[in-house]
Amino acid sequence: MAKKVLQASIKVSENPRVRFYARGEEKSGKNAFVDVTHKVVKLVLEQLDKNSEACALLRLDAQNKLVWRTEHQSIQEAKWHVEFEYGLPEEKWAKADDEKEK
Is residue 79 part of a domain? Predict the structure, then answer.
């Protein structure tokens, strides 16, 4: 079972390096892809398996709903990816809320 280990709050820049699109619905009622990049306000790193370094990077909106998810080989690799994508330095990460309670 996945375990949340780190989290960070972010503000996506006006000109992000990476954009995310999800299937949505246009005003005309037709299916279309909608840019969800600027919905992201929080990042969470989940360790996928206690016997592995693999992790998932969750991008959440203001209501803690999943916007986008990617998997990475390690937490360090995911942190480097976040630094490239959002400019978030490693020291801005904090223990996840689940970890703070322990």
Answer: yes
Number of other CB atoms surrounding residue 10 within 10 Å: 16
How many degrees, rounded to 5, is the angle at CA 82 between CA 57 and CA 40? 65
φ, ψ at 98 (rounded to 5°): -60, -35
Dihedral over alpha carbons 34, 3, 79, 88 (to 10 degrees): 60
Q: What is the pLDDT, as a whole number, of residue 32?
A: 84
Query: Would strands 66-72 and 94-95 be described as parallel, antiparallel, or unpaired?
Result: unpaired
For residue 82, give its domain range.
3-95
Global pTM reads 0.86
Q: Parallel, antiparallel, or unpaired for β 3-9 and 55-60?
A: unpaired
Number of domains observed in the structure of the chain: 1
